[in-house]
UniProtKB/TrEMBL annotation:
It comes from the Eukaryota. GO terms for cellular component: cytoplasm; nucleus. The keyword Repeat applies. It is found in: Cytoplasm; Nucleus. Pfam families: PFU, PUL, WD40. Residues 311-406 form the PFU domain. SUPFAM superfamilies: ARM repeat, WD40 repeat-like. This is Phospholipase A2 activating protein. Residues 449-710 form the PUL domain. The gene is PLAA. Belongs to the WD repeat PLAP family. Transmembrane segments: none annotated. SMART domains: WD40.
Amino acid sequence: MAGDGGAYRLRCSLLGHEQDVRGITQGFFPEGGFVSVSRDRTARLWTPDGLNRGFTEMHCMRGHSNFVSCVCIIPPSDLYPRGLIATGGNDHNICIFTVDNTAPLYVLKGHKNTVCSLSSGKFGTLLSGSWDTTAKVWLNDRCMMTLQGHTAAVWAVKILPEHGLMLTGSADKTIKLWKAGRCERTFTGHEDCVRGLAILSEMEFLSCSNDASVRRWRISGECLHVYYGHTNYIYSVSAFPHCNDFVTTGEDRSLRIWKQGECTQTIRLPAQSVWCCCVLDNDDIVVGASDGIIRVFTKSLERTASAEEIQAFENELSQASIDPKTGDLGDINADDLPGKEHLKDPGKLCTILGPSYKLPYNISDDPWLTAYNFLQKNDLNPMFLDQVAKFIIDNTKGQAPLNTNTEFSDPFTGAGRYVPGSSSLSDTAPAADPFTGMGAYQSAKAENIYFPKKDAVTFDQANPTQILGKLKELNSNAAEEQKLTEDDLIILEKLLSATCNTSAEMPTAQQIQTLWKAINWPEDIVFPALDILRLSVRHPIVNENFCGEEAHMEFIHLLLKFLNPQGKPANQLLALRALCNCFVSQAGQKLLMEQRDEIMTQAIEVKSGNNKNVHIALATLTLNYAVCLHKVNNIEGKAQCLSVISTVMEVVKDLEAVFRLLVALGTLISDDKNAVQLAKSLGVDSQIKKYVSVSEPAKVKECCRFVLNLL
């Protein structure tokens, strides 16, 4: 840098705020400016003063009814080419300002306590952290999703450069990595509240804490280094652009500059709490403190303050009082702090392969998928994927597959007899179009026949004779108090006939009551009864009975019980298919939409299994929700659905499940710019691009292209 003086010195001191300056961020406009927020309930926009080394207050913005604790800039868009300013306050609100108006453009309400951290991402997304233990994702003036998982205040949030990845730091001492609204990883290591986060790259970030340390992490889970130097709480950390150097501020009255892993300069300030800092594009550093003064420090000789100003600052510093009982240390004992030798400590691997784990594997399994699921189940670092997969391959060489049939086999009698949810014409036969049941789809021209989907997709095909035969077989072996009588079996046979359109009779209350008794069988024998439910719930009378006001919650909770990730795949499959078929009638649609959050949250838990039919059923449930959400303006529902699509898309291998997820995605974002923006911010476009190269079935490639055209 021309005129680089080496060490940082005062550039200017800015008066204006009447109380503590709690947050500072660099602005997009005016160039070289920044925004500050304070306990005095204001936000102030500062612009460089071209006549001297200082800054001029351009605007004083008001909108909060209590102190303002954080600020960030939402990047420029077509609608707001100068960007927007977001501030969070003790009044639980987030105010959004334009750069040329002192009153809020709009106010975001939803948090139940102080909003203490904000971060912006691409496509207008905003992430907020609060003392209410949650973080929220906002798009324009709507809350898209709430991130729940921390057990104490969320003090710090950051949106990572890679789409869909977000970080939250909490007073529960942990940091969490979120992808598409779901917690992917928890980082542990800090011994007190995590107060600040800073992004170094797509793969690395920094955290600071009340434990007086800074940690550098990989997003894969490793703690690369622990930095010591502060003697009290560290409130803020900010990275220099295009390198791993950073600055920190804290309760020990100091600003510290870190270069190549070393604290190279400590600047004392005449205020007890140095709450916040940010690095400008020209590498100048702006800090805010408890004395209400903003100070800017620079290495540039041209921008350094005059000798008189520097002398005034030093006089002020010499007169600052220090608590005689604690010095600058607060309640930290200096004797307990790590010594200088820790500056050379390369850090610790915070997620390690420590104890031994069992790795079950069938010869017919995909070693890479098995390795992935093994790491996920045991919460191990994904960086070991190649190593685990290679271990499986090396230790199974020369072994011939015993059975490559991926369809369900009867859990009691083996393959070749009753298969839950199956028939002579399988629901998932690869040659059949999933929505019409007709022969293999042949593409005639590039016309979007896939979405938006208008009607629910159901699982209709079955062999009633086989279902009843299996029900009778299992009934004969059931405990006496659980056995169905001969009359009960006849009643269920009549119900199956009535709901499968093989008789003109209508379902009766007695038949429905008998079915309820059967689906409450033990989990190891209940699957034929669930299959009858799956078929019966398509009938309006049965649908109304189970999904109507009287017994609907008991019905939903029963089905959700079968979606336990450790449960039987047959029960998972049939419970998902029953939920899908509930969408055929108004009562079922109403119930499933009312209970959407609970159902989708539980349903997504079965994604980790390897059964393709379960994945297809999960994708179909998501598609049916997309069909309903397309008809109503429920952006929060769409956000949850998009999150599920993004999460499940990473796991599924079966192309039929992928196709249904693509149709769901296309349906959700059709005719909805907000949904398109949200899908982009979650990185869904990058997730699905690989399916453009799929040759067969052609519908996957074509549907993917139509979705990408919208994105």
